[in-house]
């Protein structure tokens, strides 16, 4: 019984870590796109 | 605390408790954030006709996003520091940290990282003067108000109110690149609006502040002194909201709206002075409506003016 509970902890831990890593990846991609747009808009290449 | 060894690392309940994105959003005080975004936008929009070459609207949007992020970061740092007293108050005990949904160390890291990001984004997208003021605002709210004032002086929300009054100035700097009288007036309006707003809340939640030993005015000097101070600050606020009209920044429409709002504000302040039942909560809710409508009217007035002068 206790072993099942421990396995559940491990499973939850890895699932949480995976979600956190995906969230960080999403934020990094968002920031890359954001800084790209800031650079382009600051260059004022449209005229 | 049960713990098991996996890959030489101990996994405890705390490790599993990472919090959901919703918890992190709550940590950023979204209602305060929305008010900050709104007032910053008004500061920005009311200054746009003053400059020949207005900044790119997408850059302006990114700038407003950065201000929102900075406000949220301040909220996170405030909740991280206040986690002990938040647990003692009914109103705040369900916040993400005291309720155990987010770990304090996670909140601190989140607060610091979002603060730095907001400053960099604002500096790169708009200008570094606006970013510098954002740095000062985050410092003022997280350190000056939260750490130095809140627990030690009865004037905590009077001086600390400046933190909430900076966003229109940041918005103005985003549009013009410099300080301006228009923004200083908006600053003054929020600064004088804060004491009646928070003291009304303090009268409603007196037992909470007493439990957390926060020296709010009703706890230290009692209800009657608080009621008198609410009335005095309301009287000080009333003429200040006319300044945009007196200095020709807005038209007659603004003056009419402000007069109606002021009459109701004074009526509610007198009601508080007389200690009428429910007057404290009434003024607290009305004060939010009051500030929102005043700032919305400034925007609307500017919109009409831009339309008439052909700038729209």
Q: What structural category do the secondary elements of chain B indicate?
A: mainly alpha
N-to-C order of helices and strands of chain B = EEHHHHHHHHHHHHHHHH
- Which outline of chain B best applies? flat
Largest sheet of chain B: 2 strands, antiparallel
Low-pLDDT residue spans of chain A: none
Order of strands, main sheet of chain B, comes to 1-2
Write down the overall geometry of chain A: rod-shaped
Can I get a quick summary?
The complex is a heterodimer of chains A (47) and B (312). Chain A is mainly alpha-helical and 47 residues long. Chain A has one helix and no strands.
Give a written overview of the molecule.
The complex is a heterodimer of chains A (47) and B (312). Chain A is mainly alpha-helical. Helix content of chain A is 89%, strand content 0%. Chain A has one helix at 2-43. The termini of chain A are far apart. The model of chain A has no long low-confidence stretch (mean pLDDT 83). With 312 residues, chain B is mostly helical. A two-stranded antiparallel sheet of chain B has the order 1-2. In chain B, β1 and β2 form a beta hairpin. In chain B, α4 (57-81) packs antiparallel against α9. The chains are: A mainly alpha (47), B mainly alpha (312).
């Amino acid at each position: 019984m206790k072993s099942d509970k421990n396995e559940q902890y491990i499973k939850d831990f890895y699932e949480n870590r995976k979600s956190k890593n995906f969230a960080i990846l999403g934020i990094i991609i968002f920031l890359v796109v954001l800084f790209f747009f800031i650079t382009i808009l600051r260059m004022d290449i449209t005229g | 605390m049960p713990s098991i060894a996996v890959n030489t690392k101990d996994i405890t309940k705390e490790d599993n408790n990472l919090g959901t994105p919703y918890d992190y959003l709550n940590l950023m005080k979204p209602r305060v954030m929305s008010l900050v975004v709104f007032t910053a936008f008004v500061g920005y929009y009311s200054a746009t006709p003053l400059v020949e070459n207005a900044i790119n609207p997408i850059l302006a949007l990114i700038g407003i996003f950065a201000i929102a992020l900075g406000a949220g970061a301040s909220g996170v740092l405030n909740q991280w520091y206040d986690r002990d007293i938040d647990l003692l108050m009914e109103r705040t005990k369900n916040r993400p940290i005291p309720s155990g949904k987010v770990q304090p160390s996670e909140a601190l890291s989140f607060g610091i990282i979002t603060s730095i990001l907001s400053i960099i984004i604002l500096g790169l997208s708009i200008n570094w003067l606006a970013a510098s003021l954002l740095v000062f605002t985050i410092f003022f709210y997280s350190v000056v108000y939260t750490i130095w004032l809140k627990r030690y002086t009865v004037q905590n929300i009077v001086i600390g109110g400046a933190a909430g009054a900076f966003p229109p100035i940041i918005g103005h700097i985003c549009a013009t690149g410099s300080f301006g009288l228009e923004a200083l007036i908006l600053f003054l309006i929020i600064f004088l609006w804060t004491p009646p707003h928070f003291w009304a809340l303090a009268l409603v939640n007196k037992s909470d502040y007493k439990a957390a030993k926060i020296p709010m005015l009703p706890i230290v000097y009692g209800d009657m002194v608080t009621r008198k101070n609410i009335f005095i600050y309301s009287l000080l606020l009333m003429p200040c909201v006319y300044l945009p009209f007196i200095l020709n920044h807005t038209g007659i429409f603004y003056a009419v709206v402000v007069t109606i709002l002021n009459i109701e504000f004074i009526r509610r302040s007198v009601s508080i002075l007389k200690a009428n039942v429910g007057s404290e909560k009434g003024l607290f809710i009305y004060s939010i409506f009051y500030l929102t409508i005043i700032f919305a009217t400034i925007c609307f007035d500017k919109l009409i003016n831009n339309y008439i002068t052909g700038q729209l």
